[in-house]
Amino acid sequence: MTELQDLMRETVAEQPYDDLDLHDVMVAGRRRARTQRLGRAGVASAVVAVGLVAAVAAPRASSGDAGPAGAPDGTGTGGTSTTAPPSPAGPTLHLSDAVQAVEGRDFRVLATHTNQNLDGDNGQYFDGVTDDGMILFRDGPRFDQLYPRFALMNPATGAKTWLPRLNIGQADTMPVELGAHRLVLVSQGGVNRSGALIGHVFDRDTWQWSTVTWPSLPEVAGPTGVLGPDGRLYVPVLATQGKVPEGDWPLGRNKEADDSGAAGDTYDLWSVSLDDPSDVRDENMSVGSIAFTSTSMVWSDRTNGSGGLIHVRNMTTGDETTFDPQAGARCNLLSVSAAADRVVLDEFCGESSAGVRDDRIQILTTNGDQIVTIQDSGIGGGTFSVDGSDDVVTIFATDRSPALGTYAYDLSTDRFLRISHGMSMFSMGGPTPAGELMWSTAVNDNHGATQWLGELTP
User: Fold this and answer.
1) Can you list the positions of beta strands (E) in 288-389?
2) pLDDT tens for each residue of 200-230
3) Other residues' Cβ atoms within 10 Å of the Cβ of residue 132
4) What angle do CA 64, 69, 73 make, to 5 degrees?
5) Are strands 310-314 and 448-456 parallel, antiparallel or unpaired?
6) Residues contacting 321, CB < 8 A, separation 6+
7) Which of 401, 398, 353, 349 is nearest to 375 (CA)?
8) What confidence category does residue 248 fall into, taking pLDDT thresholds of 50, 70 and 90?
9) Where are the beta strands (DSSP E) in 62-106?
10) Beta strands in 31-146 (DSSP E)
């Protein structure tokens, strides 16, 4: 028993620290998104649009960042190459076009939480925000606490009401519903680590957990699923993976595998009821990334490669619109997110002739009209909500440049703001309601991190 406990402590003590150089981490992150083709079963990019879980890193030199960029320092934030990558279709912005946000004028901070030292142990995190404004707060697992605890935290007071224990071992969870009356988290396999998707439902009225499984649902590669406006959980199941060319992908100037324009992966789409284990439906659809607005389903033909066409289906009438996003011949689609009448595509498009990586956040209408493309090196992001209500595109700039930090594009006003300077290297974050966003900054010489929950002001 002692040996088992020691092994479990070692396991939880390793997360989420990743002591790597910023640029190397961004390169590795892109590789992780693409090397699913090597045979590892991939999780659909819809997960990225729902839950912010990708680890990023900041170099030690940037660890003095104490939080939001509270005072104006000009609108030129740098980070663009003098030799520009190919121009996207439609209007284009770069990080240097963002206006410096000022706390109290452009946004307000709702809550913060700091983990001073995450090097050798796990910590405490904001995992999302409920419909009624409470923070889903996760504690551990960590060295002296082998199982995670969850609480509902009042952002105004910091008071936490702890939920009954959820018996999931060290399994990863992802929130797929954060309602005023119930919370739903999903995990893959729970304690037994099988490929089965498991739903963990917390009834906020009875203050009790229950578990739902779907025996006829195919196995999945990890916690996955996107809640539709019809209340069903839509689950992508890996169908095909793009092939790595003989001799592997060519390397760019930064020694990054350049698989821009790869074939991409496809998923079979299933849906399940969160209340009835027998209600499992094969949607008979092949998809890449999927997302939902409050009224529509949005999906691509493929993901983790050339995305193909974008499809938008009204969930009430069944009417469907299909369009070519004009992403470019070399652009890999990494994720799709959506809100109201907007579609947001996170794309990697290789390198320019100067060796600058071409990353894009492309924003279109649900009819395919080009709104704007934010283009720069080392960026990624999207909207992050469980129900398609988030109207803020959160953009994380992780490249080695003065532009390092978090940015926000407000879909309701078209404001483009720089929220923070620098980033932490730790994985944390979750879905937020309309107008809100999460980000993290480094503390303690980047051994720890402060997590922020903020709200844009009108």
Assistant:
1) 290-292, 296-300, 310-314, 320-323, 332-339, 342-351, 357-365, 370-376, 379-382
2) 999 999 999 999 999 999 999 889 999 999 9
3) 12
4) 105
5) unpaired
6) 311, 312, 313, 366, 367, 368
7) 349
8) low
9) 92-93, 99-100
10) 92-93, 99-100, 107-115, 124-129, 135-139
Q: What is the pLDDT of residue 38?
A: 25
How is the chain split among helix, strand and coil, in percent rounded to 5?
10, 40, 50
Tokens of 68: 């939001």
Question: Which of these, 242, 244, 285, lies nearest to 265 by C-alpha position?
Answer: 242
User: What is the set of domains in the chain, with CATH numbers?
Assistant: 2-456 (2.130.10.10)
Residue 91: predicted pLDDT: 96
Instruction: Assess whether the previous peptide bond of 16 is cis (omega < 30° from 0).
Output: yes
Contact at 8 Å (CB) between 8 and 146?
yes
pTM of the shown model: 0.84
Q: What span, in angstroms and rounded, lies between the C-alpha atoms of 365 and 195?
A: 36
Alpha carbons 406 and 413: distance in angstroms, whole number: 18
Cα distance between residue 248 and residue 156, in whole Å: 52
Q: Nearest to residue 441, comparing CAs of 420, 418, 456?
A: 420
- What whole-number distance in Å separates Cα of residue 249 and Cα of residue 239? 22
Residue that has been written with the tokens 């999945």 in this structure: 220
> Mapping DSSP to helix (H, G, I), strand (E, B) and coil, where does residue 213 land?
strand
DSSP codes, 373-435: EEEESSEEEE---SSS---EEEEEE-SSSTT-EEEEEETTT--EEEEEES--SS-------TT
> pLDDT class for 52, splitting at 50, 70, 90?
very low
Q: What is the pLDDT of residue 263?
A: 83
For tokens 């030292």, name the residue.
117
Q: Is 92 exposed, middle or buried (0-12, 13-18, 19+ CB in 10 A)?
A: middle
Q: Which two tokens stand for residue 216?
A: 């006829």
Residue 141 preceded by cis peptide, ω within 30: yes
Q: What does the pLDDT average to over 73-82?
A: 37
Cα dihedral 53, 187, 126, 425 sign: negative
**What residue has token string 């190919």?**
86
Cα–Cα distance for residue pair 43/55, rounded to 1 Å: 16
**Alpha carbons 198 and 185: distance in angstroms, whole number:** 8
Confidence at 63, pLDDT banded by 50, 70, 90:
very low
Q: SS3 of 31, please?
A: helix
| Each residue's pLDDT tens digit, 88-98 | 999 999 999 99
